[in-house]
Amino acid sequence: MSNNIEGKVVVITGASSGMGEAAARHLAVQGASVVLGARRIERLQSLADELTNQGGKALAVETDVTDPNQVQRLVDEAVQTYGRVDVIINNAGLMPHSPLERLKIDDWNRMIDVNIKGVLYGIAAVIPYMKEQKGGHIINVSSVAGHKVRAGGVVYAATKHAVRVISEGLRQEVKPYNIRTTVISPGAVDTELPNSATEPDVAENLHKFYKEFAIPADSFARAVAFAMSQPEEVDINEILFRPTRQEL
Ligand SMILES: NC(=O)c1ccc[n+]([C@@H]2O[C@H](COP(=O)([O-])OP(=O)(O)OC[C@H]3O[C@@H](n4cnc5c(N)ncnc54)[C@H](OP(=O)(O)O)[C@@H]3O)[C@@H](O)[C@H]2O)c1
What we know:
binds NADP nicotinamide-adenine-dinucleotide phosphate; 46% helix; 16% strand
């Protein structure tokens, strides 16, 4: 019986670490062709080599998601290499938390550019292909912070709320083209995300919290696989998951 994953061409942004990397591994083993985008090309290339050596299909494409042309090239290369694009996982993101009064305007801008605009550029890059194919699946990564705002993480929460809003609007708009849409909102997952904090005290607290609470990144990979593996007429629109112990 088909798992509805085998043979699919899946573009993943932010595949050089954490949840993107875990999704790439999980989906490649199940027979998807994975097209990996991020800035750290050496890490992407070694992941692609490893997956290929294990009999999978993987392609690494250096991509900065703040540049719409680079995101378009990532998707174009997927189509040129594998003939189509079935799924995009708009996953690249960063979380340099800080109270607003610290005026970390560069961090705010980077979060807006990567977490919101990067997702929009991914959507823009696949829509023409998916309309023509009359099918596809766009998976966006929000967060528990897309549901709840907490002092000290306001701009990050704003970007993740935006991802949910964009995903729900997208869902309504692409119905006529038979495109599925899923927004996945994880709680604390053990990745390199706390390293993106630029304030030393915030970074220390984040690392402590993650050490205590975070669950492995394959939790995200399994959520992706669950949404993808449904029959094509079933559209899993939202998934919210947390560590069992995580209160907020
Ligand atoms: N871990 C959690 O607890 C958690 C919870 C909720 C939501 N999330 C979300 O999950 C997503 C993945 O994060 P993660 O937890 O897996 O953290 P991670 O290990 O730090 O991974 C982040 C990924 O994003 C990529 N990235 C950052 N800026 C980029 C840019 N300008 N262009 C292209 N790629 C870029 C990084 O690659 P390069 O540096 O190589 O470019 C990396 O592959 C993020 O959207 C994050 O907000 C995470």
